[in-house]
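Input record (Table S2, row 572):
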Amino acid sequence: MPFGVTLQTKREMFFKSDSTASAGGGGGGGGGNPLGPPSTAPPAPPVSAPTSAPPPPPTTTTANPTPTPVTNHVNSNATNNATNNATTNNAPDAKTSVASIKEQLLTTKDKKDHKDEENKESKQAAKPPIKDKTNAKEVFRRQREVEGYVGFANLPNQVYRKAVKKGFEFSLMVVGESGLGKSTMINSMFLSDIYSNEYPGPSHRVKKTVQVETTKVLLKENAVNLMLTVVDTPGFGDAVDNSDCWQPVIDYVESKYEEYLNAESKVNRKSISDNRVHCCLYFIAPSGHGLKSLDIEFMRRLHDKVNIIPVIAKADTLTPEECQHFKKQIINEIHQHKIKIYEFPEEDGDNNKLKQRVPFAVVGSNVTTEVDGKKVRGRKYPWGIVEVENLSHCDFIPLRNLLIRTHMQDLKEVTSSVHYENYRCRKLAGGTTDNKSKSSNKPSCLTRSKNSVASAWNPLALMEEEKKEHSSRMQKMESEMEQVFEMKVKEKMTKLSELEADLQKRNETMRRKLETDMAELEEERERFEKERRAWETANNVTVEELRRRSLESISKEQVDGKDKGKKKKGLF
Ligand code: GDP
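Output record (guanosine-5'-diphosphate complex):
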C-alpha cells in the first residue's frame, strides 16, 4: 500500500475513534447515546463561522475539522464566545495530538517513503502540466491543506441555518387496537398534550370502521420548529371481523406518496411539503403469547411501504422475564414470517444495543409523581412506581431517542429512498402499487443494505423485462384469440353439420313420400287399365276405336256445318 493511503487510513481510524468517543459523551449534535437518559441539554448547533478573525491555518496535513462542542444557547454572543473558546482550546490540542500520532505512525520506512513522495511531488511541480488529451481521465491529487482560512469549513453552518429556517417535518403513524396506550405514549414522547380532553385520543373516537386521522402540531424547541404529524387509526383491530382493516392504512400511506409524486412533477417544486409517513409504531398487546394473526398480516402488508417499529404496549403488565421472553417470541415470529421491520443504518455499538431492545417494551403516563424528591413521569401502583423514563423499567427512552434524537433523519431518508422510491418506480413503470411484483429488477427490489440504501436499479434491465413481459402478454393474447377462433370455427362446423343432417333427413323423408306417392299412382294407373280393359271387353270396342269414331263424327259435323253456311249465303 503506498504511503499516502496507509497514513490516510491510519489517520481516519484515529479520527473515527476520536469522534466516536466524543459522540458517546453526550447528546450534543444529535449524536448522543440513544440508550442514555435524556440529558437536559438539547442538540448543539454547529459552530458559527468566525466573523472577525479566521481560525489559525492548520499546520499539519491532516486537520479534518473535528466537531467542536458548544453551548446550546441561541444567543449569538454566547455562541461566538463558545466558538472562540472552543477553537482556541481545541485547536492546539488537536494539532498536538495529530502531530504526536503522526510521529507514532511514521515508522522509519514510512518516513523514507514520505521523503520519496515529497521529492516526487516537488519534481512533478517543476514539470509542465501534462495535457489531458481525452478529457476523460480524472486526476486525483493528494489531500491538500489550504493555507489560511478560505471558508468552506463554514459549509455545515450554512446547511444548519437553512435547515433551521425551513423547519423540520415528521409524520409518525401509530397503529394498534384501542386502549393500548397509543395517545398516552404520543403525549409522553413529545411532552405535550397532543391529545387532551378537548381532543381525545383514538380510543375515545372509536369508529365502526377503521379511519385514518391526522393531527398536526407545531413543536418548538430552542428556535427549531418541528411540524409533527401524528397519524392514528381509530377502530383498527376493534371489529369482530378484522379482515382488510389494514387497507385504509395502506391507502393513506400510498395517497401521501401519490401527493408527493404529483407535487414533484409540478413546474414549481420549490416548497414541497413532505407528508409521507416516516415511521409507523405498531403497538402489540402485552399478551405474552406472541403475535396475533392481525399483527402479522398488518406488518406483512405494510413492511415494504413504511418503516415499521414494533412496540410492546403497557410493558408494566409484564415481569422483566416475561417481557424478555415475549420479545424473543415476537422477533422469532417476525423472522419466521419474513417481515422487514425498520433496520438500523450501521451496526455499531449503539445501534446493536438498540437492536437488542426491539420490540421496544414501553410504558406511557401523562402524570408526574415524586420519587426521592424528584418529579418523574410514571404510573403509581400500591407496590411501587413504574418510571416511564427509567431505562431499567422500560424502553421508552431508547425509543424516544431513536425517533427524535438519533434516527429521525434516517427514518426520513429510508422513507424517501426506499419506500417512496419503490412506490414511484412501480407507478412510473405502469404497474400496480401493491407488492405482488417479485422481479429482481422491479423497483420493489429497493431495500436498505447493511450500511447504505441500495437505491440503484437497472433501467435497461427493467426495460428488457418489460419487453419480455409485453411479448409474453402478446403471445398469451394471441393464443387466447386463436382459442376463441378455433372455438367459433368448431361451433360453426357443428351448426353446419347439424344443418346438413337436418337437410338430409328432410330430403330422405321427401324422397320416401315421393316414392310412396309414385307407388300409389302406379297402383291407381294399373287399376284404371284393368277397368278399361274390362270395359272394352264388355262393350267389345276399344277406347282407341271409340276415340277415332268420335273424331270422325266431329269432323263430319264440321264439314256439314260449312256447306249449310254457304247455301244460306247464296240465298241472299
Ligand atoms: P389508545 O386508545 O391506544 O390511545 O389508549 P390510551 O392512551 O387512551 O390509553 C388507554 C388506557 O390505558 C388509559 O387508561 C391509560 O391511562 C392506560 N395506559 C396508557 N399507557 C399505559 C401503560 O403503559 N401501562 C398501563 N398499565 N396503562 C396504560
